[in-house]
Give the backbone structure.
Amino acid sequence: MWNPGIWVATLLLLVMPVALVWAEAPGQLESVDSDLPDMASIDDVATKKQVFFDFLNPIIQRVNQRIVAERIWLLQMQTDLDQGKTAAPWQTSYLAQLGRDYEVEETPGSDAYFELMLNRVDVIPASLVLAQAANESAWGTSRFAVEGNNLFGQWCFAEGCGLVPAGRPEGERYEVKLFADVAESVASYFQNVNTHPPYRDMRNIRSELRYLGEPASSLMLVWGLEGYSIRGEAYIRELTEMITHNELIEYDQRPFYAAN
């Protein structure tokens, strides 16, 4: 039976030099529009939602495609090393670079390295990213979205790194991070969810789905994100409702989420 996931994996392996350039320097390839539209000027709710999804989805897919290239390369390297092949100097260097990118301290090329890397270097379904972005940014109309390109409510802690929230408790130092554009915000969100301890449950659910040969379902992964909001389970149920009500699953590109 023809498996589109395997077909994509094979194709990317054949063009891996291009995939690695993309992974290292995405700005060198054709860019997508990352300037947030004036969402507040759109009165019709249905139109506002569609404009938001149509704007953000290509940015999300671009990040997921980069991650797919990284993951397939890691899987191939794991296979090669298991078969006793010696990594070329550039491959050793790139293993180390990816380890730094994903905050993995295990020795590059070791079993422990690949186990942790493959838990982190993986896609996040567009449906889940779209729902969180819409929820956190009030459909791109919040102060932090408009002034800081921050669609996910991400914090930073160095003075001047972001916008100070109104009503921030006295003595607190956090700010809502400023980004140069929305693409930078999306990339930071992926890095956050794929590496930080509060979202380990989400990554473990995703890994279990991989083991079972199932796609990374947003309606399952979302239950690993309770730590994203102080609202906990209520936040998860709200995201679930947004995904189902807005039929966001249609934005998930199944070949990229196949069991590779």
In short: The first helix runs from residue 4 to 14.
